[in-house]
Amino acid sequence: MSAPTSTAVRPLRIGSLVSATPVVLAPMAGITNTAYRQLCREQGEGFYVSEMITSRALVERTPETMRLISFTPAERPRSLQLYGVDPLTVSKAVEMIVAEDLADHVDLNFGCPVPKVTRKGGGSALPWKADLFRDIVRGAVTTASRGGIPVTVKMRKGIDDDHLTYLQAGRTAEQEGVAAVALHGRTASQHYSGHADWEAIARLRDTVTSIPVLGNGDIWSAEDALDMVQRTGVDGVVVGRGCLGRPWLFADLEAGFAGRPERVRPGLRQVTQVLRRHAELLCEFYEDELRGCRDIRKHISWYFKGYAVGGDMRARLGLVDTLEALDELIADLDLDQPYPGAAAEGSRGRAGSPQARVALPEGWLDSQELTGAAAEMIRQAELSVSGG
Ligand SMILES: Cc1cc2nc3c(=O)[nH]c(=O)nc-3n(C[C@H](O)[C@H](O)[C@H](O)COP(=O)(O)O)c2cc1C
């Protein structure tokens, strides 16, 4: 993508919360926990969103969910993403957040394409039921307003190209008092394949005019972020996979949006220092060294993308079970390797192929209204597990 010539950057306002750098760390299940958010936030200003928290699991206070909603005292503002399909349950979850002062900002997930979610009418399947979408958003905004907490909506373009929902959902969200809407420029059926449609993001920006619109999808560098703002007119960007194994991307984004040219280009020694710290923070987060070490394993290939770290070494790192073992393996690397350039950049994380058919409740596409049987199904469809 070509580098933009100039971009007028304004602070991003979400309700009364302001970030001079208009950047949001995308919620990512299994990734954006307290440990990772802390690592990213140290790099630059922005909104750093938790992984998705299931409304029902929050209301039921499952131990894993209570861990997932933890924020360190330094983490401000606290952005928590909620997932839910039943307006009453989502409202109850927001009520708990307000009453117990659990977050400063609530983001609603209408973008998840995972079959276990869409099969129940949730995530990216939900905005198709226009009245259900409105009820959930209305309930969340009304309840959150009692605590002065802004609510944002994160969504995809729709279920597939024949069932697009984003413009209608964007207008509804705006009418119902949402503080900002974010669009991932893919349909559920695309999953993570192909390219994000930035033209759709521009169309949403033209449609929703009174609140910030955030663009999401395929931002791999500060240059991509500036390019998206310039091409689409969005008020901010949401960055997911681009920062995997690269929390310093947030320093690049801050510099880029401030018009500064410097970018973080770490040699392998610096990369391993961040990786080591990430592992340590995960061990603290889980209060369990083995669990923290198991969790860091999935980040290893992202951290080492483009660096000369052999397959055997990567395999051994992929089995690491103590911080001491991690240190020993790191000590065996050629730590003087410089930044490898393009090989460390570009796409990373999930890609995959499109889904031939999005898993949906029976008859879901027949009507945009929630009819009797589907309404009953929805009441029983709340998942009880957060994340993943
Ligand atoms: C591992 C992974 C987990 C994700 N989990 C969530 C989630 O919990 N909630 C959500 O709204 N989106 C989730 N997403 C989607 C991202 O927030 C984002 O919309 C998507 O990755 C596109 O942005 P990107 O191209 O910058 O990665 C997830 C994506 C990935 C790769």
Automatic annotation (TrEMBL):
Catalytic function, reaction form: a 5,6-dihydrouridine in tRNA + NADP(+) = a uridine in tRNA + NADPH + H(+); a 5,6-dihydrouridine in tRNA + NAD(+) = a uridine in tRNA + NADH + H(+)
Cofactor requirements of the protein: FMN
Domain DUS-like FMN-binding: 25-317
InterPro entries in the cross-refs: Aldolase_TIM, DUS-like_FMN-bd, DUS_fam, DusB-like, tRNA-dHydroUridine_Synthase_C, tRNA_hU_synthase_CS
MF terms in GO: oxidoreductase activity
Alphabetical keyword list: Flavoprotein, FMN, NADP, Oxidoreductase, RNA-binding, tRNA processing, tRNA-binding
EC number: 1.3.1.-
Keyword tRNA processing: yes
Domain of life: Bacteria
Function: Catalyzes the synthesis of 5,6-dihydrouridine (D), a modified base found in the D-loop of most tRNAs, via the reduction of the C5-C6 double bond in target uridines.
Family: Belongs to the dus family.
The protein's name: tRNA-dihydrouridine synthase
Organism, scientific name: Kineococcus endophyticus
